[in-house]
Amino acid sequence: MNRKLRAMIAVAAALCLLAGPAAMAEAVVELNVFAAASLTESLNQIAELYKAVQPDVTLAFNFDSSGTLQTQIESGAQADVFLSAAEKQMDALAGGGYLLDGTRADLLNNKAVLIVPEGSALGLKSFEDVAGDSVKLVALGNSDVPVGQYAQDVFTALGIWDKVSAKASLGANVKEVLSQVQSGAVDCGVAYLTDAATAKGVTVVAEAPEGSHKPVVYPGAVLRASANADAAKAFLAYLTTPDAVKVFQSVGFTMAAP
Amino acid sequence: MARVNWFPLWNSLRIAAISTGITFFLGLFAAQRITSAPRWLKGALDTVLTLPLVLPPTVVGFFILMFLGPKGPLGSLIKAWFGWTITMRWQAAVIAVTIVTFPLMYRTVRGAFDAFDEQLIQAGRTLGLTDAFLFWRVKLPGCRDGILAGVVLSFARGLGEYGATSMVAGYIANRTATISTSVAYFWQIGENGPAYFWVAVNLVISLAVMTLVNLLERRRAA
Predict the structure, then answer these.
(1) Contacts of B87 in chain A (CB under 8 A)
(2) What is the pLDDT of residue A20?
(3) Which residues of A touch B69 (CB under 8 A)?
(4) Average predicted confidence (pLDDT) for chain B
(5) Distance of CA B157 to CAs B88, B180, B203, Å?
(6) How open is the CA angle B25-B174-A144, to the nearest 5 degrees?
(7) Which of A126, A198, B42, B152 lies 20 to 30 Å (CA to CA) from residue A53?
(8) What local confidence, expressed as pLDDT, does residue B99 receive?
(9) Distance from C-alpha of A29 to C-alpha of A56, rounded to nearest angstrom
(10) Is the Cβ–Cβ distance between A137 and A167 less than 8 Å?
(11) DSSP symbols for B62-90
(12) Which residues pair with B187 in a beta bridge?
């Protein structure tokens, strides 16, 4: 390689190195929002709306089971906002001092429902039917996943948990449960009403009986380690404005009592 | 120890063993045919057949789900004819492991075949021996160490398969749980004790297997 070419490559490389930090210095505020997987569709829609409200804030979502997100935060992941599908994971973080004081609030309510693949001929009508012999496989979240915990509560209340867990395919988050039901490889599954509303290929056959599980409450909070606490608080506040509420309600969430 | 559910060990072993059996015959067949194929075809087939070696197992898992899931082109036929769904069963894991380990067997056997002195075959033919006899009783024993190394490597890789297995068979206790998916499961639900246990089991088996591979390779080089 001749000297001229080498010199050009060196300059190009140096420019690339400079461009990185320079670009970041002018960049917008990026908020890392760790949210329960069941919030995927609604938060993606809200992010579009938020662009008009706060054009200099970009939202980077990490959707997964609340248990996984809790573990990630405890392991040092950079998160600004945490939206959990159950109080348990938020309580754990509060106990560990991860939350910014005064930012925790209950945001949404949801319902656990029994779903079947579209076109299922099994004729399931209620959660009790899952214990029947016609159901060979049921998709549930594992015990680290809120929707798995709610499902276990329901089946325990009905006295059929042992039977059901013996034929349970345990998923790592609610979207895995959904995809197993959608594919038709399992006979039924327990997910959220909101997931069933946005997913293709599944039908809701029953809602969990009243009182059979802890109320499904989605709390949200800003994390103490957030480098953008004000932007994070503003985003959380936006989630209770009428525009955001409309999106949540359109997929089946109800707003939690303040 | 009495409280340990040993199913994942038994399941992992049977999946790895059956897959290795399948790849053994598939690998031998492919290697033999391709060794004598024209050069241009050889290269193309080599590439295609070794592809699963470099593909992320999740890609393999995804393709299997799309084809063999109950709504997929092949899966829906199987369901219509036999009333059977293969995904979410340990048999689906066998398919995943076979695909993922095939390149290992294929490459190792091809290497052994390429190094084999074909003059022995030709000499045998002049003595009136059939091609079948020459393949099974002259060529294979002559390539024994290489073939054995391929078998052991495939078995070891099959035992450790996670990504594709997790996608196509999921985690169903006492039905599809393998050592690798059990480790992931126990870690996820925060029970590190059982996770450590299965990690240790896997380490012991893997150490034993790799020691065997090294012994075989050294004998071959000697």
Answers:
(1) 183, 185
(2) 54
(3) 183-185
(4) 90
(5) 21, 11, 13
(6) 120
(7) A198
(8) 95
(9) 6
(10) yes
(11) HHHHHHHSTTSHHHHHHHHHH----TTSH
(12) none
Question: Under an 8 A CB cutoff, do B170 and A68 touch?
Answer: no
Query: Which band of pLDDT confidence, cut at 50, 70 and 90, is reported for residue B118?
Result: confident
Residue A36's Cβ-count burial label (10 Å; 0-12, 13-18, 19+) is buried
- Of the candidate ranges A219-233, B90-104, B105-119, the one whose mean pLDDT is the lowest: B105-119
Q: What is residue A27's predicted lDDT score, i.e. its pLDDT?
A: 57
Task: Check A180 against B188: CB less than 8 A apart.
Answer: no
As a whole number of Å, the end-to-end CA separation of chain A is: 69
What average pLDDT does the segment B96-120 reach? Answer: 91
The token pair at A237 is: 């506040």
Q: How far apart are CA A155 and CA A157, in angstroms?
A: 5
B21 vs A: CB within 8 A: no
**pLDDT at position A16:** 64
Considering only CB atoms, A180 lies closest to which of B88, B174, B189, namely: B88
Instruction: Compute CA distances B33 → B38, B45, B58, B109, B170, whole Å.
Output: 10, 11, 30, 12, 36
Interface pTM (ipTM) of the complex? 0.82
Residue A209's SS3 state is coil
pLDDT < 50 regions, chain A: 23, 25-26
For chain A, how many residues are written?
Answer: 258
Contact A235, A50 (CB under 8 A): yes
Strand partners, A109: A217, A254
Residue A217: partners with Cβ closer than 8 Å, 6 or more residues away: A86, A87, A106, A108, A109, A256
